[in-house]
């Protein structure tokens, strides 16, 4: 038995020399035989199942390892329910003084937090136990600096000597599987280009990406290229894995195989989608070609095997395609040759040819979109009064028909139907990463600007037709007006809506925290609090302004709303 004086100093308290099991049995601290002890600071956290898996594996291997739960739960019932799932020991929840001292001693700033100690001396091996278990699992045991350095050296050696078998195989598995459950020897991939595709079930960007990749895969197969794709699932359960894999025509590493997590670490996965390209010799050719496929869509197959020369040719073709762009090439796909009018009538795209058309990417769930809409409606009406050769087409990112219908009901222009396949292609062509976005298409069908929103907010209806020449002219006029505008305004003021002094500030676009509408040029701003008021709101006595959002909806998965835009993440 190891000398437990070190760990006893850490875990014992006045009048208590024991820990608890979830059966309520007391375990003397002096009886702990493990040479490595982990203090797990947590409160009902999803990391726990992973730690349980690692703990059980280490114990079954006869490793000298123990975990002690240091609860952050709010009450005894929550502690009991959470601890009931754990196979290790715990500091009694009733010993609040000991819990507080442990949190203070190890400077716990957030949970989950896993501190791993030498049980004999109490020496800290690492305070990054959560990250190490995530990255290396049980291979990190005993979690010393020496062991982690050894693992990193092994990874470096593995990359230097990488083969198709070292990437996909294990000592007990030399095959991959199809979605029918058939086993395919890894040796069948020798001499082929292999795309290693990381997948999470139901994640929108991955679903969209794999649908395009499937078209590329089928095309390359049809022309006889030696190409294969291997799915690396990051799903935690078999049902999600099967759902992801069901419609995919390629191979996969079996669900739950630890190689999936190793590959995510090995290729430093930081975001999805991600597609690693492996060459016929088993070496990595490209760490991620997902961006190439996102940019070029199904046409990306023409750049295979994605060498610099092939990509240059593809870029030239894309440039030529852009130069030959027409409104029909953007808005017509097969039988989808129409947009919707206010009464639901189908308006042929041909009726828009020869007009300046704004493509309006937006959604009701997006607060900045709702704030921008009144401004856009107002300027649309002003432009239409003078120019018949102008139209807007709403391209929705809403999730439900009712939200789409309600939002569209406040728009006097046209729209693509909700869920229309053209939305995805248009988003890719114009690289739409945030909403609201306005893309201006000229009468000749060419792109005038991918950001018509900024000049429209700055110049209103005068920005039409959004050409560079027009905007330069307006900027010169505006600069003079802006400087004249502020003459006589106080440089600083106090307002009932904010505690701090507000400073008159030149700015671009912003959302007014008084009237909740967009503004530009000048703001009375508190930089410290990111608070803005239109000069008209700041200089007029309005009293309290209602700041609530009516009919607010949560942003869907994959989006974050900040300031005046909602972006994909």
TrEMBL record:
The keyword Oxidoreductase applies. It holds the Pfam family C1_2. Its EC number is 1.8.1.8. It catalyses: [protein]-dithiol + NADP(+) = [protein]-disulfide + NADPH + H(+); [protein]-dithiol + NAD(+) = [protein]-disulfide + NADH + H(+). Residues 316-476 form the Thioredoxin domain. Belongs to the nucleoredoxin family. PANTHER family: THIOREDOXIN, THIOREDOXIN DOMAIN-CONTAINING PROTEIN. This is protein-disulfide reductase. It comes from Oryza nivara (Indian wild rice).
